[in-house]
Design brief:
It is built from 11 helices and 13 strands. By secondary structure, the chain is an alpha/beta fold. The structure holds nicotinamide-adenine-dinucleotide and UDP-4-deoxy-4-formamido-beta-L-arabinopyranose (WQD).
């Protein structure tokens, strides 16, 4: 089978390409380098020993996307990562997010339909649940989104669902919890541009000296140590789930044309636990201060992953320790490369 990966030079896309090739799939990929670099392709070539089939295509450009599909034959399924993902930026620039995340997905669906491709795996997010009582399963009610970014994920899921009713398309929507960590080679990982919003890149950048200190956003939450709880999932475990999702579509094991799965570990860890784990596995002392709460943060969320285990035959295998170890190795690699 040949899989098109959109957003393949990005954080999760690049790790997924490695796992798809490892599992024996053919892969082609597109990206517009909005939030990634061409050097990722060289590193993917090194890790996989394969020349990655890449084209620079912007999914907002419908004509270019259609032309791309006309020029490629044999694509059986698409894994759609390409999107903008910064929650705060989406509040300031909602139109950018609706155009890229929603408009881009519509363009992709049209181009797929024209090319007769009927399988898609979509990158959704636990953000669709908002504040819910964990463990959160797939039947938990979806609340009104708290950001335009979150809304784009909800809207895309609805569009995809509608499209399954109107065509032969089959959709697996994967709701990621908090992806962290990096490939063991330290050749690929998350590349936050500017000041990171997410916890783990902020921790590693502080430890390496790029940031003076980490601010813990609030220690007065109703949790055991007062800090927020999340479900941190290793990006390689997450990547492997995409292989399972493609097999699920290919083997026609699905019951519904639109299926949704939570992808997390099933465990919640607090911000302080993440910091302590980072310190324990790296031997680094992290400079941090307790600050005020960050607007929009939910108190605690972690996944119930029973459905993914039962239907995809997938569960995570990597610990929080492994997440911290690989994130640190990746940060050190970035520094050794002059952060290029
Ligand atoms: P990322 O920014 O590292 O990767 C996205 C890739 O898509 C980038 O390489 C970017 O250049 C590309 N892209 C963006 N717009 C494009 C366009 N118009 N045309 C072509 N390429 C385009 O992000 P990621 O962390 O790998 O996230 C991948 C997907 O997973 C996104 O849809 C994101 O919303 C979703 N997701 C991410 C997280 C997370 O915390 N990382 C959590 C839940 C869901
Ligand atoms: C984790 C915890 C912060 C930074 C985001 C998106 C979500 C999804 C995953 C895409 C929280 C705390 C953080 C810092 C801190 N992405 N923190 N100091 O907010 O759970 O989820 O990424 O779909 O949509 O919202 O992740 O890594 O930002 O925060 O104390 O400098 O770390 O308050 O409790 P979040 P995060």
């Amino acid at each position: 089978m040949k899989i098109l990966v959109t957003g393949g030079t990005g954080y999760i896309g690049s790790h997924t390409i490695v796992e798809l090739l490892k599992a024996g799939f053919d892969v082609c990929t597109i990206d517009n380098f909005d939030n990634s670099y061409p050097s990722v392709l060289e590193n993917l070539n090194k890790i996989t020993g394969t020349q990655i089939e890449f084209d620079e295509v912007d999914i907002r450009d419908k004509a270019a996307l259609k032309k791309y599909f006309q020029s490629k034959s044999g694509i059986d399924a698409v894994i759609h990562f390409a999107a903008n993902k910064a929650v705060g930026e989406s509040v300031a620039l909602p139109l950018k997010y609706y155009e890229n995340n929603v408009g881009g997905t519509i363009n992709l669906l049209e181009a797929m339909q024209e090319a007769g491709i009927n399988n898609i795996v979509f990158s959704s997010s636990c953000t669709v649940y908002g504040e819910a009582n964990p463990p959160v399963d797939e039947y938990t009610a979806i609340l009104p989104a708290t950001s335009p970014y979150g809304n784009t994920k909800q809207i895309c899921e609805e569009i995809l669902m509608d499209q399954t009713r109107a065509s032969d398309i089959k959709v697996v929507s994967l709701r990621y919890f908090n992806p962290v960590g990096a490939h063991e080679s330290a050749l690929i990982g998350e590349l936050p541009i500017g000041v990171p919003n997410n916890l783990v890149p902020f921790i590693t950048q502080t430890a390496i000296g790029k940031r003076e200190f980490l601010t813990v956003f609030g220690n007065d939450y109703p949790t055991p140590d007062g800090t927020c709880i999340r479900d941190y999932i290793h990006v390689v475990d997450l990547a492997i789930a995409h292989v399972a999702a493609i097999n699920y579509l290919a083997n026609k094991k699905y019951r519904d044309a639109f299926s949704v799965f939570n992808l997390g570990t099933g465990n919640g860890n607090s911000v302080l636990e993440v910091i302590q784990t980072f310190e324990a596995v790296t031997g680094e002392k992290l400079a941090y201060k307790i600050g005020g709460r960050r607007a929009g943060d939910v108190v605690q969320i972690y996944a119930s992953c029973d459905k993914a285990l039962k239907e995809l035959g997938w569960k995570t295998e990597r610990s929080l320790e492994e997440c911290m170890r690989s994130s640190w190795k990746w940060e050190q690699h970035l520094q050794s490369m002059g952060n290029k």
